[in-house]
Amino acid sequence: MSTRLAPLCILAAAACSTVPGTGRSQLTFALSPAQEIQLGEEAYREQLQGAKLVRSGPQYEMLMRIGPRIAQAAEHLYPDSLATEFEWEFSLIDDPKTVNAWCLPGGKVAVYTGLLPVTRDEASLAVVVGHEVAHAIARHGAERISQQTGLQGLLFAGGQLIGLSDMSASTQELTLQALGLGAQVGVLLPFSRTHESEADELGLYMSADAGYEPRAAIGLWERMAAASGGSGPPEFLSTHPSEGTRIQRLEEHMPKALRYYNKARREGRAVE
Q1: Do residues 145 and 31 lie in contact, with contact meaning Cβ atoms separated by under 8 Å?
Q2: What are the b/e assignments for 244-269, b being 16+ CB within 10 Å?
Q3: Who is most buried in 16, 125, 140, 166, counting CB within 10 A?
Q4: Residue among 7, 26, 69 nearest 271 (CA)
């Protein structure tokens, strides 16, 4: 084993963790939870600089209703996650052209007004907020950075071995390009799709536990598919699953989500 690679392997082996709610093993050696939260808070302030924030009105009030409910559901369902350490904040950014939302470590959530014509109702927006919160509590950002760090180490080691071989310079270059493409298509993109599917699942459960009808997620992704018009690369070259794949998986998770929702209804926590 390369002396450059050995410390990385030892560190990675020591940094295995489990995603709350799914039990999937992950590597997060690149960032500690404290570093992750600090970076998330710094990035949140930077993202909001110059942004036009909505601070009143029905859309703002809707997000302010949804946010604390999802935060409470995250802490309730996943008490061993970072959710219990987050200082939650929710912002609505006035940008009709941006159909997006995000959550950074530390519980910093932002929704763009351009998303609201697609979500249409409170339950669908709760699904989106749950999805974004899931990325943060599942530590997908730290995992992604750790994956890239590990792959860079492996590609460096591979480059060293190729450089010592008797291949021609042109063959060495083509081989390195193939290794890079293989890492992207074979490792990073599938993990990105795994993260998205995992966030869909956990976000569905959180929105249901928060008292929102989980079946709203199906209509949401049908509208997302219509809004995208089928544009984008093939699924195997994409960072996100196709809308059809997402709907199929959400249907599979729906019985469990409905159990959370029905419990919320029995306890008087449902949003009717």
Answers
A1: yes
A2: ebbbebbeebbeebeebbeebeeeee
A3: 125
A4: 69
The 3-state secondary structure of 148-186 reads HHHHHHHHHHHHHHHHCCCCCHHHHHHHHHHHHHHHHHH
- Catalytic residue IDs: 132
pLDDT in tens, 161-186: 444 445 455 544 443 343 333 334 33
Check residue 138 and report its DSSP letter: T
Give the integer Cα–Cα distance in Å for 63 and 41: 20
What distances in angstroms separate CA 252 from CA 197, 203, 246, 247, one per listed residue? 12, 14, 10, 9
- pLDDT < 50 regions, the chain: 1-14, 153-165, 167, 171-191, 233-238
The pTM assigned to this predicted structure is 0.78
